[in-house]
Automatic annotation (TrEMBL), chain A:
GO molecular function, one term: mRNA 3'-UTR AU-rich region binding
Biological process, per Gene Ontology: exonucleolytic trimming to generate mature 3'-end of 5.8S rRNA from tricistronic rRNA transcript (SSU-rRNA, 5.8S rRNA, LSU-rRNA); mRNA processing; nuclear mRNA surveillance; nuclear polyadenylation-dependent mRNA catabolic process; nuclear polyadenylation-dependent rRNA catabolic process; rRNA catabolic process; TRAMP-dependent tRNA surveillance pathway; U1 snRNA 3'-end processing
Protein's name according to its UniProt entry: Ribosomal RNA-processing protein 43
Cell membrane listed as a keyword: no
TrEMBL record, chain B:
GO biological process, one term: rRNA catabolic process
Top-level taxonomic group: Eukaryota
Source organism of this protein record: Pachysolen tannophilus NRRL Y-2460
Taxonomic path: Eukaryota, Fungi, Dikarya, Ascomycota, Saccharomycotina
InterPro entries in alphabetical order: ExoRNase_PH_dom1 (IPR001247), PNPase/RNase_PH_dom_sf (IPR027408), Ribosomal_Su5_D2-typ_SF (IPR020568), RNase_PH (IPR050080)
Record flagged with keyword RNA-binding: yes
Name the UniProt record assigns to this protein: Exoribonuclease phosphorolytic domain-containing protein
GO molecular function list: RNA binding
UniProtKB/TrEMBL annotation, chain C:
Sample GO molecular function, one term: RNA binding
Name under which the protein is recorded: Exoribonuclease phosphorolytic domain-containing protein
Main subcellular location of this protein, as a coarse class: nucleus
Residue ranges of domain Exoribonuclease phosphorolytic in the record: 13-152
Compartments it resides in: Nucleus
Cross-referenced SUPFAM superfamilies: Ribosomal protein S5 domain 2-like
Gene Ontology annotations for the cellular component aspect, listed alphabetically: cytoplasmic exosome (RNase complex); nuclear exosome (RNase complex); nucleolus
Stored InterPro entries: ExoRNase_PH_dom1, PNPase/RNase_PH_dom_sf, Ribosomal_Su5_D2-typ_SF, RNase_PH
This protein's record includes keyword S-adenosyl-L-methionine: no
Length: 342, 283, 251
């Protein structure tokens, strides 16, 4: 900039690319697109690299080869997803709930299958340097979306969570065949931690949830008799006196509907003003792309490359969403899912 | 859960927690024999988390710690002449925390089904937070950052050791993150941790064993035992910035001196490693 | 109250039902086939543009604050997600640059839900609760009406409709809870309107297993027809009626 000589014209200010993308995201996006690039320097149809790890060592049974090295972690299944800088860690834990006695007999009823699926209760935590513990809107929305999507995907049958055979740990086997004994089922919870929040978070969270679910193992169950005490300390704690106890080693693999395993992908749509053509951007990343791409398409595709969910948001009035562009996006998604799941 | 939390999906309120029977000892671990005078290996990495000012990641055995530092960042409100330092240590909600039974005895929510529902810091988390905070308070040039705050977030992703040993690793992780955040400090803090068995006058350096609950509640006092973490600024005349001792026996002056000496040795050893890592990462 | 609708659904709508807010509307949607089912009833109120809190203010455009209240109990994450989806549509439709630094508050109260059993145990696994397409549909239409009532500037008119493909591969807009649960796929479609005709697709959500071809041919056509029907038979009357009432003292 020139020294102030009164009438002199203003010099232009130059910003480095990453600052421009915050100050004027729309400009940053447009300039990159004009060059045939994106602000994240990927090509339009280029996905971020993705690494999946299901043997993360977080789960109880992770180090398990033949029942030899079970840890005392309560995590029944876990996975870690890394994409670009973003890391998503998902751990699934469980609880036990008493259920009504009737439910399995209703298979003859034409109330068909969808009632027979359930979901996981997820809580997403995105680390972004906030002190108080209240979840942000984004975290709440993600959690709810995960719950609904998994439910509608029909991956987790209710039946798989019902506990059929409980071994009775008492000496007298007399009341073993008691018909009106209570019935129990597992409920599953997921805790999802997000580090370096960037890009299509729902896709990563959903991916990590489904991948973790595939690794879930449910422990064997015993009833406890009166004398059975888990831990000396619980006596002092007073109120822990479980009726049911899980075997520390024996487990079953959770049965899930493998056919319905699916994967979510989100695309951004932008219209560069010089052409009428709409550009599809894969895996939005960075401030410029995330704030300026208001038109989005979210597709969930299953293993057999069938569409399971489609969400189109036409947030940008310059982008006209027609059959052509959606089909193109779906095709991109199918190719990608084929790579990831098969 | 008495009050249903409407901002989280916590599942049915009538669910009860999964309780596992104790893992049989012989199977629970392939006992990795580490000589008592050796420091266990660690994996360290910095700058992994991008949306903060400095971060570090440490893996020691099965213990995994991640620290993010946000700051110095501007604060709202009135003028202050030096930075506010705050520390928050959180375990992943489903982890069982070391000395858990003690905090369980004192906390009102003793029966949590869904770990995700846990909101406040537990006693253990609070203790670790305040230890780290007091160490770094005396180390950072807070007066260089008026009108600002520096927030340290510690996430324990996995834990497989006793409390004080964990604290030891947390200190190192925070120091590395501090360097990554380029916050002006007097020195880099490292610390040493050891266990002193009084009966046979034996010192275990960097004890990795997990404490059984009964060790802490003193139901069975088998032997006099002391755990010690001492944090130093080794390049500043070995000044002590933190000291934490837990145990079930008394500590005499001469023994204490000896223990601090050993902690210092260990701290220096770790400092060398961290220095090496930092120099390497510059290249 | 104007009512009317397509072959399958009856809509009833009324504007200016609340007099202390800037715009309001009440809407009910019920099945023509099965009148015992009950109706989906929603009331929407809009306050704005009003002064916004400093924290929410954006320098060049207005901000939206949307809250959805369930018909029983208090709002939870489910409503948060509904609010988020509503915002995606409304951000496109409301002419937010017209009201810089202002706030527009939209509150939706769900009054009735069709065929809702009164078991309200918290955390119950009622599938109806997890198909929110119906609610979203009602919320969108009633918000549109309330926006017109409030006189807030919009870039375009918009309306929505939802339909399902049932197990016999039939496409229908008239469905109850069980139909929904047993459907192959469920779709919500939002179009903007130009000259009473559907113009551009502005939002869609489809759950379940379906084919792209079917989506573009059958689903979109069906919903377009439903939307245009709704517009000519209900919405227009409703708006005409409102303006008649507004100018009741003229002449």
């Amino acid at each position: 900039m020139s020294e102030g000589n009164g009438q002199e014209e203003m010099g232009s200010i130059r910003f480095p690319a990453e600052i421009l993308s915050v100050v004027a995201p729309d400009l940053s996006l447009k300039r990159h697109l004009d060059l045939g690039l994106r602000p994240c320097l990927r090509k339009f149809h280029e996905f971020k690299n993705l690494t999946l790890n299901v043997k993360s060592g977080l789960s109880r049974y992770d180090g398990d080869v033949d029942g030899e090295s079970v840890t005392d972690s309560p995590v029944l299944g876990s996975s870690v997803i890394k994409s670009g800088n973003t890391t998503v860690i998902c751990g699934i834990t469980g609880g036990i709930v008493e259920i009504a006695n009737v439910s399995t007999t209703t298979t003859s009823d034409d109330h068909d299958d969808s009632m027979e699926y359930t979901s996981i209760y997820p809580v997403v935590e995105i680390s972004r340097g906030k002190l108080n513990g209240a979840p942000t809107d984004e975290e709440m929305i993600l959690s709810q979306q995960l719950y609904e999507t998994l439910l509608h995907s029909k991956i987790l049958p209710k039946k798989s969570l019902i506990i059929d055979n409980i071994a009775l740990k008492t000496n007298d086997d007399t009341n073993n065949n008691n018909n009106n004994r209570k019935r129990y089922a597992f409920v599953l919870y997921a805790n999802i931690q997000v580090f370096s929040r960037e890009g299509p978070l729902f896709d990563y969270c959903y991916g990590s949830l489904v991948k973790s679910l595939q690794t879930v193992k449910l422990p064997f169950i015993h009833f406890t008799d009166e004398e059975f005490i888990i831990n000396d300390n619980r006596k002092n704690g007073g109120n822990v006196k479980p009726e049911i106890i899980c075997d520390s080693e024996a487990y079953n693999q959770l049965k899930i509907n493998e056919e319905n395993i699916n994967w979510s992908l989100t695309f951004g749509l932008v219209n560069n003003d010089d052409g009428k053509e709409t550009i599809i951007l894969c895996d939005l990343e960075g401030h410029a792309e995330e704030t300026c791409c208001k038109s989005l398409i979210n597709v969930i595709i299953d293993k057999n490359l069938k569409m399971r969910y489609l969400n189109i948001v036409g947030g940008d009035e310059n982008v006209i969403i027609d059959e052509n562009i959606v089909l193109k996006t779906v095709q991109l998604a199918k190719n990608r899912v084929n790579n990831i799941l098969n | 859960m008495n009050v249903q939390d409407r901002r989280r999906l916590l599942g049915p309120a009538n669910a009860s927690p999964i309780v596992f029977s104790d893992v049989k000892e012989k199977k629970s671990k392939k006992i990795q024999a580490k000589p008592d005078d050796e420091i266990s290996k660690m994996f360290i990495n910095t700058g992994l988390v991008k949306n903060c000012d400095g971060s570090a990641y440490i893996e020691v055995g099965n213990t995994i710690i991640q620290v993010s530092i946000y700051g110095p960042r501007p604060i709202r409100g009135s003028f202050i002449d030096k930075a506010i330092l705050s520390t928050e240590c959180r375990f992943l909600p489903y982890l069982s925390q070391p000395n858990d039974s003690i905090s369980r005895l004192t906390s009102s929510t003793s029966l949590i089904t869904n770990y995700n529902g846990k909101l406040n810091l537990s006693n253990i988390e609070q203790k670790i937070s305040s230890y780290i905070e007091s160490c770094f308070l005396s180390c950072i040039y807070l007066e260089n950052y008026p009108k600002s705050s520096i927030d340290i977030f510690i996430k324990i992703l996995s834990v497989d050791t006793n409390l004080l040993n964990l604290v030891n690793d947390v200190v190192h992780c925070c120091s590395l993150a501090m360097v990554d955040a380029q916050i002006e400090s007097k020195d880099l803090i490292t610390s040493g941790n050891l266990r002193y068995l009084k009966s046979n006058n034996h010192i275990i350096m960097d004890p990795k064993c997990k404490d059984k609950d009964k060790d802490i509640t003193n139901e069975v006092v088998e032997e006099g035992k002391l755990d010690l973490v001492v944090s130093f600024m080794n390049s500043r005349n070995d000044e002590i910035v933190g000291f934490w001792c837990e145990g079930n026996d008394t500590l005499e002056d001469d023994v204490l001196e000896k223990l601090i000496e050993r902690c210092n040795d260990m701290s220096k050893e770790i400092r060398k490693n961290i220095n090496f890592y930092l120099i390497e990462s510059l290249e | 109250m104007s009512s009317g609708g397509s072959d399958e659904l009856i809509y009833e709508a009324k504007l200016s039902v609340l007099n202390r807010v800037d715009g309001s509307a009440q809407l009910s949607i019920s099945s023509r086939k099965d009148l015992d089912e009950g109706e989906l009833g929603i009331i929407c109120s809009i306050t704005g543009p009003i002064e916004s809190k400093a924290r929410q203010e954006s320098p060049q455009q207005s901000n939206l604050e949307i809250s959805v209240m369930p018909h029983i109990g208090v709002a939870s994450t489910r409503e948060k997600l509904l609010e988020y989806k509503l915002k995606l549509v409304l951000d496109r439709v409301i002419d937010s640059f017209e009201y810089p630094r202002q706030l527009i508050q939209i509150v939706l109260q769900i009054l009735n839900k069709p065929n809702y059993e009164d078991d309200t145990t918290i955390g119950s696994d009622d599938m109806n609760d997890f198909f929110s397409l119906n609610d979203l549909n009602g919320c969108l239409i009633s918000t549109y009406l309330a926006l017109i009532d409030s006189g807030i500037s919009m870039k375009s008119s918009f309306l929505s409709s939802c339909c399902i493909i049932n197990s016999n591969n039939q496409l229908t807009t008239d469905f109850n809870k069980n139909d929904l649960i047993n459907s192959k796929s469920a779709h919500l479609i939002v179009y903007d309107l130009r000259n009473g005709k559907c113009n551009n697709l502005i939002y869609s959500e489809s759950i379940g297993e379906f084919d792209e071809q079917i989506f573009f041919k059958n689903v979109l056509d069906k919903c377009k027809k439903e939307i245009e029907n709704l517009n000519t038979k209900v919405i227009k009357n409703c708006i005409t009626e409102k303006f008649k009432n507004d100018y009741i003292w003229k002449a």
